[in-house]
Design a protein that fits this description.
The complex is a heterodimer.
Chain A: H1 7-10, H2 24-44, H3 52-63, H4 86-113, E1 121-131, E2 134-142, H5 144-168, H6 174-193, H7 197-215, H8 222-253, H9 258-264, H10 273-289, H11 298-301, H12 307-316, H13 321-328, H14 330-333, H15 337-358, H16 364-384, H17 388-423, H18 443-457, H19 463-477, H20 483-486, E3 488-489, E4 492-493, H21 494-524, H22 532-535, H23 543-558, H24 575-591, H25 601-625, H26 643-648, H27 653-690, H28 707-719, H29 724-740
Antiparallel strand pairs in A: 1-2, 3-4
Helix pairs in contact in A: 2-4, 2-6, 4-5, 4-6, 5-6, 5-12, 5-17, 5-23, 6-7, 7-8, 8-10, 10-13, 10-15, 12-17, 13-17, 15-16, 15-21, 16-17, 16-19, 16-21, 17-18, 17-19, 17-23, 17-24, 18-21, 18-23, 19-25, 21-25
Chain B: H1 2-7, H2 10-32, H3 41-44, H4 48-71, E1 80-88, E2 93-99, H5 101-120, H6 129-148, H7 152-173, H8 178-206, H9 220-226, H10 231-248, H11 257-264, H12 267-292, H13 294-297, H14 300-322, H15 327-348, H16 351-382, H17 398-411, H18 418-433, H19 435-442, H20 444-460, H21 477-495, H22 498-529
Antiparallel strand pairs in B: 1-2
Helix pairs in contact in B: 2-4, 2-6, 4-5, 4-6, 5-6, 5-12, 5-16, 5-22, 6-7, 7-8, 8-10, 8-11, 10-12, 11-12, 11-15, 12-15, 12-16, 14-15, 14-19, 14-20, 15-16, 15-18, 15-20, 16-17, 16-18, 16-21, 16-22, 17-20, 18-19, 18-21
Classes of the chains: A mainly alpha, B mainly alpha.
Chain lengths: 745, 530
């Protein structure tokens, strides 16, 4: 790999600092992937016999006796058989992340050292797709936005890797797990470091691939394999949008580099149909990756993967890639107010829709999954309304508290599993109806998860309060005078749309407080419902798992200090705002029509007060109305009816998609396209010509009518006669004759 | 490297040697197989000599051809490694061979995949092995000849030479319905190529030198530069070539021979069919049908019709793949979809789309070739290709599974693998001239993921619920060794395709320019007229 600095970037202030090793960031987890992947494959691989068809029958007898040591098929989820390379894997897997995080911190320090940075630091490695006027380079770019993402990915990623050492250590596929997880971090870093859309897209699809592999990690369960496949295909619908957006950008701008696209974006015309359509296609991609309506359906199913995966991929990092993409494309989105307004609407509708489903789920991870969809909706409200900083801020705090919630639930599930394992019980270890009262047995997890709950509910001074408040505040501020207020969504004036979305945002905040408190109450409070014998085995997880929880707990509490609002000067104000200003400042101003984002202090205080009251009201309501002591274990619970049933079944959207889209496509393909056109029509015409009565019959039954078919039929029957060598000879000699006879006279 | 190759005259002898070596090898293989008793020759050991001789021969062929990578000068357009001798003077046919960037990559793909195909037949072909390997070698010579020929008569001869061995390979070593499949294959392709022969003779006569006593001239360059046809004649001739090549591609609705041929063919037969023979159709469009009759091929009606058929093929092939119960048939229909991309790229006529089409040709050869190898390997173990017969075998055959997943990902065009580069370039380029068609075609990225991942899930994942699958042996070292180079190429072409693109660039640009300039004059005239 030839490392060459382009002349223009050679003068960049970062080029002499540690930032020149930026390529090492993704390379580290990639090395981890290679090592763990090789360990996994070599330990699993037993070379087959050199003649597979002959040896099959003998092999059958030979290996049948060793089936016991493999455990029953489909059961390795529960079996405890530590992998023999587990030690090395535990070192390499998290180790590369520790190194990457260290490097990220060093680069961050270097960036702070060089002061204000107005151009990204771009490193070109080699030419990827040079075709005519298309020049796509393998290039990374480091700027303030990608730096924030890199820190979140490597930092939170590192903690989750460490947690996984404890959570997954007894899984027979341990090296495979870490191989996938390392590969994910590699692709995620490529995603945020790529200097052009196609490189970003490598990461974009790569993380989707790892998500597919990890959701279906326990692939012997059909539900898990289904969930992985569903995630990949639904994401591909979004990727289709992303691809079309790239085609449009290239056809109109002749480039796909971020720097050049940003510079040339205004030539697309502010508010033009073209730029709006480009942005909407991009947003389709975001809706797929970040699970927004109508493509959110894969994320709840994605909980089939191991819980640390849910924390890393399906909460903290990958699903926020859509938010990142919009923030990255802020130059385009700020030119298309109606597209931005669409993002706001989709985000806020998704937020409340998912939150309402979260109210009635019994599976602890499903609650968190819908909560993630809902919180991602908030982030889209932010980036849609041009509050890119608020969006990134919430992305960051959400990464802290949601990773904590997922890992916490992981530690709960781990405890439940262990308890069930000891007594051989086969209940659902994720159903909250089987939990209850876990506070006594898992006090650390309990306390930390409460911190995260208060953070996500928006209670000051926890992290989520600041970021959510900033989103709602900026949205409210847009309802007057901004470009968004002047745009329209489906003919509705923007200011009305914005105010409605603001109300939806508040309502979502209320529901968030309710369902999170419900989850805490049912899991940790009230009497324990795990079972009398199982209860004795409930215990806190080892420190390798609780340690990362504590770190995330601290971040969930103090995360708000990364971007304090001017109205609460409890430290340096607007750090993140100032940091991201060179990237998004101009676009935010364009969307607000140059008006400052600030609103009157009295109004702002009032808005904050309302939001906090709503959050506290939600928590209080849950405490008053929900009675954990009335719950019975899942197996004894009566079925639900009415609204509750609809919510539990997620508004039947999966069923709707299946009946309206999947089944018709499959049925049409099978009966019309394949059996009808292919076999029926086209082959039917062929048969007319061949005069064959039945093409499905055995050889020799091709009944021939015409002269050509008859002679060919004779030819065909000759094939059976065994004189094959003769034909080959005829061919070879004929060929030599044709080629040579006249050539060399 | 280049200096060394030139110093030994590599440029002058390589092409005829590449043609002659497989034929000599075929004769030697036949001799070595004399006295085989018949029956299961792998078990009796009678297969050992012919197959190792053939594999050595393919290996040597590949090694010799690899030099082309360096000997070929990517900076220039025009024919390289040209070889030209008189052949049949009374008919005006010359033995002219030469390469441009397009045929260079096709030749390398052929020698590469044929070597692996012979390795892949090691234990799967058990009867009449000497004849089998001899036919495989003749087939190789035929395909290489088509890619190298710069004389239309020679092109036709090679075209036929390659059809016949394939017919035998499917018909003798094929599955249950091999006779039906091989007949269908033969009739479809034969009708097309007979029409092409008529077209070639017409062109040869049209290009004859009046001073040379009426002897026809089949030289590609001469025909290209001297023959100027009436629009109606051009349209008819284009039609003749179109049929020959469209069947071979295969374009919807001429594709139904393909699933049958694939399903019935032995593993190596399927690999060769998919990896190379289908490319001969699209190669025919690139080399003959479009450059020779640009006004006909690119007239709005014909171009629109072909593009429409291409896009129908892309979506239709993908949808039909979705519902196939037979894995081999599924991959066969997916070929219809992939080759539709090639046709779209060629007829969208931008540098990106043509380069993309060329990349898809290479990629499809590698990825689909690998898929057929894998199907063959699991078939050898379980003797069924039905998806429903499997399930959960990832536990039993981890290496096979890892490779199948990887190859599937490359086939559905995950970036970082070769598949993405080709599809991306085709769509990006086509969007410039035909945005709507490009957007419709792009939907196939969704369906492709659906059909392959669904099949992969039903084969590798889900519960391992069939006892007969519990003790299937994993890949052996020979199989691993044969797949490894393909996997390496998948990664290489996905991550660093620039060297390949650079070698094909002049040819692709020349193709676009040639067609555009021959289309341009009337347009500028009419513009001036207004």
């Amino acid at each position: 790999m030839l490392l060459q600095h382009a002349a223009a970037t050679g003068a960049h202030p970062l080029s002499d600092t540690v930032a020149r090793f930026v390529w090492l960031l993704p390379l580290l987890p990639f090395v981890g992937f290679v090592i763990n992947g090789l360990l996994s494959l070599t330990s699993a691989y037993k070379a087959g016999p050199s003649d597979p068809s002959a040896a099959h029958d003998e092999a059958h007898a030979a290996v049948s006796h060793e089936s016991e040591e493999h455990g029953a098929p489909g059961d390795d989820h529960h079996s405890i058989a530590r992998h023999r390379s587990a030690g090395l894997v535990s070192l390499v897997g998290p180790g590369v992340l520790v190194l990457a995080f260290g490097l990220a911190l060093a680069i961050f320090a270097a960036m702070r050292g060089v002061g204000e940075m107005h151009a990204p630091f771009v490193q070109q490695y080699f030419s990827w797709m040079p075709v005519g006027d298309l020049q796509i380079n393998a290039a990374f770019q480091l700027d303030q936005l990608s730096m924030v993402m890199v820190l979140v990915i490597t930092g939170v990623g590192m903690l989750i890797h460490v947690f996984s050492v404890g959570y997954m250590q007894d899984d027979p596929g341990y090296p495979r797990y870490f191989a996938y997880l390392n590969l994910f971090v590699f692709f995620m870093l490529v995603l945020v470091l790529g200097a052009n859309y196609p490189i970003l897209f490598i990461g974009w699809e790569g993380v989707g691939l790892c998500s597919y592999l990890l959701i279906g990690y326990w692939f012997s369960d059909k539900a898990n394999a289904d969930a992985g496949k569903k995630a990949f295909i639904v994401n591909r619908i979004g990727d289709f949008g992303f691809l079309v957006a790239m085609f449009m950008l290239f056809a109109n701008l002749g480039t796909l580099d971020f720097v050049s696209v940003n510079a040339a974006a205004s030539s697309l015309g502010a508010g033009s149909v073209l730029v709006t359509v480009i942005c909407l296609f991009l947003f389709l991609g975001c809706a797929g990756k970040s699970a927004q309506i109508p493509l959110y359906v894969w994320l709840p199913d994605a909980m089939a993967g191991p819980t640390p995966v849910s924390a890393l991929i399906h909460a903290a990092t990958m699903v926020t890639a859509g938010v990142y993409l919009i923030a990255r494309s802020n130059a385009l989105f700020s030119l298309a107010p109606s597209a931005s307004l669409t993002v706001v609407v989709v985000g806020s509708v998704t937020a409340i829709f998912a939150a309402s489903i979260g109210l009635k789920q019994w599976d602890i991870k499903k609650v968190l999954a819908y909560s993630t969809v809902s919180q991602l909706g908030y982030m889209f409200v932010a980036v849609g309304s041009g509050a890119y900083v608020a969006g990134m801020f919430h992305l960051m705090t959400h990464a802290f508290f949601k990773a904590l919630l997922f890992l916490g639930s992981g530690s709960v599930i781990y405890a439940m599993h262990r308890a069930y394992h000891h007594t051989g019980k086969h209940d659902d270890a994720q159903d909250m109806r089987n939990m209850g009262g876990l506070r006594t047995y898992l006090p650390i997890t309990w306390a930390l998860m409460w911190a995260a709950t208060l953070a996500i509910a928006g209670v000051p001074p926890f992290a989520g309060f600041f970021s959510k408040d900033e989103i709602l505040g900026s949205l409210f501020a847009r309802h007057e005078g901004s470009a968004l207020a002047q745009a329209h969504f489906l003919g509705i004036p923007g200011n009305i749309v914005i105010l409605s979305c603001y109300v939806l945002g508040l309502a979502t905040a209320f529901m968030t407080a309710v369902y999170m408190t419900r989850m805490m109450l049912y899991t940790f409070h009230g009497p324990n419902r795990t079972g009398d014998r199982e209860r004795e085995h409930l215990a806190e997880a080892p420190w390798v798992m609780t340690g990362p929880l504590v770190a995330l707990g601290i971040l969930s509490v103090v995360g708000g200090w990364f971007n304090l609002p001017g109205i609460i000067p409890a430290g340096p104000v607007g750090v993140l705002e100032h940091w991201l200003e060179p990237i998004v400042g101009e676009s935010t101003l364009r969307l607000t029509n140059g008006a400052p984002a600030e609103i009157a202090h009295s109004t702002e205080l009032m808005l904050i007060g309302v939001a906090v009251l709503i959050a506290l009201a939600g928590i209080a309501l849950a405490f008053v109305r929900l009675k954990p002591e009335r719950l019975v274990p899942a197996s004894a619970s009566p079925p639900e009816h009415g609204v509750e049933e609809v919510l539990l079944n997620k508004y039947y959207v999966d069923e709707l998609y299946d009946a309206a889209i999947v089944q018709p496509i499959v049925a049409t393909s099978r009966s019309l396209l394949w059996r009808g056109i292919d076999v029926g029509l086209i082959d039917g015409l062929t048969r007319l010509f061949l005069q064959s009565k039945d093409d499905d019959s055995a050889p020799g039954a091709v009944r021939m009518g015409g002269l050509l078919p008859r002679s060919l039929g004779w030819f065909g029957s000759q094939l059976q006669s065994g004189q094959v060598g003769t034909y080959a000879w005829v061919l070879v000699i004929g060929m030599l004759f044709v080629l040579g006879a006249f050539s060399f006279r | 490297m280049r200096e060394f190759l030139l110093s030994v005259g590599y440029d002058r002898w390589i092409l005829p040697v590449l043609l002659a070596l497989p034929l000599i090898g075929a004769a030697a293989v036949l001799v070595s197989g004399r006295g085989a008793s018949g029956g299961d020759e792998v078990a009796t050991g009678a297969a050992a000599r012919p197959r190792s001789l053939a594999t050595w021969c393919f290996g040597l062929e590949f090694l010799l051809s690899v030099g082309l990578w360096w000997a070929f000068d990517p900076g220039t357009s025009g024919w390289q490694q040209r070889f030209d001798v008189a052949w049949i003077p009374s008919w005006g046919a010359r033995f002219t061979l030469g390469l441009d960037g397009i045929s260079l990559m096709m030749v390398l793909l052929t020698t590469f995949m044929m070597f692996l195909a012979s390795l892949g037949s090691w234990t799967s072909v058990r009867q009449k092995t000497a004849a089998y390997y001899a036919l495989l070698l003749v087939l190789t010579a035929g395909m290489l000849g088509v890619f190298m020929a710069l004389d239309l008569f020679l092109f036709y001869v090679m075209w036929e030479v390659m059809l016949v061995p394939m017919y035998f390979i499917v018909g003798i070593w094929g599955g249950q319905r091999r006779i039906y499949a091989s007949l269908k294959f033969f009739i479809y392709t034969m009708i097309g190529s007979l029409l092409m022969l008529v077209g070639i003779i017409y062109l040869g006569l049209a290009a004859r030198d009046p001073l040379a006593a009426g002897v026809p001239n089949f030289s590609y360059d001469a025909i290209l530069s001297t023959v100027h046809l009436e629009p109606t004649v051009a349209a008819w001739l284009f039609g003749a070539f179109f049929l020959a090549f469209a069947v071979k591609v295969p374009m919807f609705p001429f594709h139904t021979w393909l699933p049958d041929a694939h399903v019935e063919a032995p593993t190596a037969g399927s690999v060769v069919l998919a990896a190379i023979m289908l490319k001969l159709g699209t190669f025919g469009f690139l080399r003959l049908a479009v450059p020779l009759f640009p006004t006909a091929a690119m007239s709005p009606g014909i171009r629109g019709a072909i593009l429409t058929l291409a896009v129908i093929g892309i979506v239709y092939g993908a949808l039909v793949s979705l519902v196939q119960p037979d894995f081999k048939k599924l991959v066969a229909y997916s070929s219809v979809s992939h080759l539709g991309f090639v046709m779209l790229g060629i007829f969208a006529l931008t540098v990106q789309s043509v380069q993309g089409a060329l990349m898809v040709m290479i990629n499809h050869g590698l990825s689909t070739g690998a898929l057929f190898f894998l199907i063959g390997m699991i078939y050898e173990r379980r003797h069924t290709r039905m998806i429903a017969a499997y399930g959960g075998i990832a536990k039993v055959v981890p290496m096979f599974s890892a490779i199948l997943v990887f190859v599937s990902l490359s086939s559905i065009g995950v970036p970082g693998t070769n598949g993405f580069v080709g599809e991306f370039l085709v769509l990006l380029g086509s969007y410039r001239t035909y945005p709507i068609l490009a957007v419709i075609s792009a939907t196939s990225v969704i369906i492709a993921a659906a059909y392959l991942l669904w099949a992969v899930q039903r084969i590798l994942f889900n519960p391992l619920d069939k006892p007969e699958n519990e003790h299937v042996p994993d890949l052996n070292r020979r199989e691993l060794a044969l797949l490894a180079p393909i996997l390496a190429c998948i990664v290489w072409l996905g991550v660093y395709p620039a060297p390949v693109l650079r070698r094909m660039q002049p040819a692709a640009e020349q193709f676009v320019r040639l067609v555009e300039t021959r289309l341009a004059p009337p347009a500028t005239l009419s513009a001036r007229g207004r």
